[in-house]
Amino acid sequence: MPEILYFFLGAVGVGFISGLLGLGGGVILTPGLTLFAGLSIQQAVGISLISVISTSMSASTVYLRKGLVDIEFAISLALSASAGSVTGGLLSEYIPGAYLAFLFSGILLYSSISILSKSNSEEVHRSQVSTSKTIFFIALAFFAGTLTGLLGLGGGIIYVPLLFIGLGFPMPRAVGTSAFTVGLTATAAAVVYYAQGALDETFDIIPAVVLGIITGAKLGGLIGARSKSIYSRLLFAALLIYFCYRMIRQGIAQL
């Protein structure tokens, strides 16, 4: 089987899970490319950012049609996060890969614990959320954007717990709003990585990865919009814990 086909099939799986859970794909694709494809973390981050954009465009259309996206709030998050993503992209040139792996694993562990410890929420409309709390979470989006630039994350591992736990969005709405936001955020960081040359040696596999991501995300988005909150939460947490373990191992090996 040609190598390019492996990348495509792997990307279909990543896209499916990403669309199902409202992730940009980076939380799965970045460690997957470094752990299984042997790419450097900087190369993996660059490819991940391109895929994040594709995943968001593909999956968010499904959630938009079902009314599961708070567009106004998503744009507010994305504007703040985009500034952070440019900052993170510029910083990535100066931080060793091992430290990035440890940072990645810490974020994964935090997100998995947060998702598992939160009980099911009653639906909360944004009009019920205080202005000060909304401003705080928009400021927090800058940090999520910085992680996008550093680690190739779309921000879904931050946005989904933020919206679900912090603002009381029901899980499907949190996932839909996250899916819409992450593509807007990743675009700014992708431009930085392209300018730095991080994508120069990976142009041959990017089309296969992007096509696979789009295909899988469409399927994941359709199922995710109909799935029960508890199933999404358990799958989300299990994936994060697994990749947390693998990234810690990789970080230690690079020291």
Give a short summary of the structure.
This protein has 255 residues and is mainly alpha-helical. It is 78% helix and 0% strand.
Task: Give a verbal description of the structure.
With 255 residues, the protein is an all-alpha fold. Helices cover 78% and strands 0% of the residues. The chain has helices at 3-21, 26-36, 41-65, 71-91, 97-117, 131-151, 156-166, 171-196, 206-224, 229-254. Helix 2 (26-36) packs antiparallel against helix 3, helix 3 (41-65) runs parallel beside helix 9 (206-224) and helix 5 (97-117) packs antiparallel against helix 10 (229-254). It is globular, with a radius of gyration of 17 Å. The N and C termini lie far apart (34 Å). The model has no long low-confidence stretch (mean pLDDT 78).
Offer a few descriptive terms.
mainly alpha; 0% strand; 255 residues
How are the SSEs ordered, and which strands pair?
Blueprint lengths: L2 H19 L4 H11 L4 H25 L5 H21 L5 H21 L13 H21 L4 H11 L4 H26 L9 H19 L4 H26 L1
Helix pairs in contact: 1-3, 1-9, 2-3, 2-10, 3-6, 3-8, 3-9, 4-6, 4-8, 5-7, 5-10, 7-8
Strand content: under 5%
* Radius of gyration of CA atoms, rounded to a whole number: 17 Å
| Quaternary | single chain
| Domains, number | 1
Structural class: mainly alpha
Largest sheet: none
Poorly predicted residue ranges: none
Shape from CA axes? globular
What is the overall number of helices? 10
Task: Please report the distance between the alpha carbons of the first and last residues.
Answer: 34 Å
Q: SSE order, as H and E? A: HHHHHHHHHH
Percent helix: over 70%
Tally of extended strands? 0
pLDDT averaged residue by residue: 78
